[in-house]
Design goal:
This protein is α/β, with parallel strands linked by helices. It has eight helices and nine strands. Helix 4 crosses helix 6 and helix 7 runs parallel beside helix 8. The chain is globular and about 55 Å long. It comes from Fuerstiella marisgermanici.
């Protein structure tokens, strides 16, 4: 015999499906990226914001990635000690999961999101990250999610903190607490774009401070950003988190930039 709880859940699902059908008639669905009305995908959360074609373009299969930095590598590459993109660099986080490499469709989507007045694109990309890389994140078994914080200059010039939006969306999907206040910027660092890889790591040194160490002591931390290039920013943050008691630190990002060695 079905329990009252089971009947209630089915009733809620039926009502939600009915309401969604009505909304689809009044406001026809279209892909958030290409605006096509065809090829809609249904996922665990209901309907995906992206059509199947765009989902494949944004997050292609990544059968071979570096265990250390998440970069896509060839099928016969051993990455126990890193790959050409991270070997020899002072990476302090344990591993990295990403939606895809920072090129073509994913690059366009992230840039569109950063300059948008809405957080919908970032949240939808994060939902896709959970759909396609959720097993990796759950296997890590994080106990707290922490976004890379912004400096005061970025807070003044940007509409929102992309890392915080991604962290909040992951928190909802993974049912893990997200905290914006544990990790803080201790100073404004120089722009990273026009400096060498070595300078990027030096630039981030002592760039963070811990506000509430008891929140991470003895815990497995999922550190979140929107895009990773060299890993310098996340590496310095991970170093400080571990120095203050975190037992492990995995990074989750939307995109991994394949930088030269």
């Amino acid at each position: 015999m079905q329990s009252n709880g089971g009947r209630t859940t089915k009733l809620k699902e039926s009502v939600a499906s009915f309401l969604q059908s009505g909304l689809d008639v009044v406001f026809p669905w279209s892909c958030l990226l290409c605006h096509s009305t065809a090829d809609r995908v249904t996922n665990a959360a209901g309907g995906s914001a992206f059509c199947q074609t765009c989902r494949n373009a944004l997050s292609p299969e990544l059968p071979y990635t570096c265990d250390r930095c998440g970069a896509e590598v060839g099928p016969f590459v051993t990455t126990d000690n890193g790959c050409v993109h991270c070997r020899g660099k002072p990476i302090r986080f344990d591993s990295l999961s990403c939606l895809g490499m920072y090129d073509e469709s994913l690059r366009h989507a992230i840039l569109s999101a950063k300059w948008s007045f809405s957080t919908v694109m970032l949240e939808s990309l994060t939902d896709l990250l959970t759909d396609n890389r959720g097993a990796q994140l759950r296997d890590f078994d994080p106990e707290i999610i922490i976004p890379i914080p912004q400096g005061w200059a970025a807070r003044l010039t940007r509409r929102f903190n992309s890392a915080a939006i991604v962290a909040a969306a992951l928190s909802r999907s993974l049912k893990v607490k997200s905290d914006l206040h544990v990790l803080r910027r201790s100073r404004n660092t120089r722009p990273q774009k026009r400096v060498s890889i070595q300078q990027r790591f030096e630039n981030q040194k002592d760039g963070f401070r811990i506000r509430d160490a008891h929140m991470i002591a003895g815990k497995r931390v999922l550190l979140v950003d929107d895009v990773v290039t060299t890993g310098a920013t996340c590496s310095e943050a991970a170093r400080l988190l571990k120095a203050n008691g975190a037992t492990a630190c995995r990074v989750a990002v939307l995109a991994r930039v394949l930088n030269p060695s």
